[in-house]
Amino acid sequence: MLSQIVRPLVQTQIRLLANSQATQTTLIDTIARWLGYLGVQAKVTKLTPDSERIHLSLTVAKPDGCDSQDWQQILNNLRSPATIEGSSENNYTQMSEVQQQQLARLLAYLIQVGNPNGKISWTEVETQLLPLNLNPFILSSIQVALKVPQPTDLLQKLDPDVAASAFPIAVRIAWFDQEINPHEHDALSTLLSAMK
């Protein structure tokens, strides 16, 4: 559903950039506008084209829906040396075993609703999951969880920390087939709500 809305907009923007006489200004405006749709006030401070990539530097202000206390905590966390050393996306050492199991069950649920025909090959799923750098415990827990249908009420009692850890991974899993079906959309929306 989301891809059906976003993809045509992206294609339109690409054509606009390709045909623009002021590509740099247009791209800077486009980035600021798209982040603005998410409630983020961003300003591009540097834009440098490289051989196959475009390097950007952004200055981002507190998003509209962000609580001042949360924003201050984010800034404090970013200033902490520990934040620079570890990768938050792949570091599950701070999560308890119970939280890791809940994360695995959530991801298994997302994989199941992403395959409505019910045919799930662990070999294929594992191949898709390996680039996400999940730890072996979470991977084996997902494999076990996929053997039985995960209940929908799993999404009703979410630990906010688990939801926050699950969300970026869940988005990537939902995009494995380049489409987000209604069940995946509902699951992602629930994860977003649980993080608030």
Helix and strand pattern: HHEEHHHHHHH
Average predicted confidence as pLDDT: 81
DSSP helical segment count = 9
Stretches where pLDDT is under 50 for at least 5 consecutive residues are 83-89
Instruction: Identify the overall geometry.
Output: globular
Q: What structural class results from the helix and strand content? A: mainly alpha
Compute the number of structural domains.
2
Strands of the biggest beta sheet: in what spatial order? 1-2
The rounded Rg comes to 19 Å
Note the main sheet: 2 strands, antiparallel
Percent of residues in helices: 55-70%
Distance between the termini: 23 Å
Question: Concise description?
Answer:
This protein is mainly alpha-helical and 196 residues long. It contains nine helices and two strands; from the N terminus they run H-H-E-E-H-H-H-H-H-H-H. The longest helix has 18 residues.
Description:
This protein folds into two domains: 1-85, no CATH class; 97-195, no CATH class. It contains nine helices and two strands. The protein has helices at residues 2-19, 23-37, 68-79, 81-85, 97-113, 122-129, 136-145, 160-174, 182-195, and strands spanning 42-49, 54-60. The chain has a two-stranded antiparallel sheet. The longest helix has 18 residues, at 2-19. Residues 83-89 have low confidence and may be disordered.
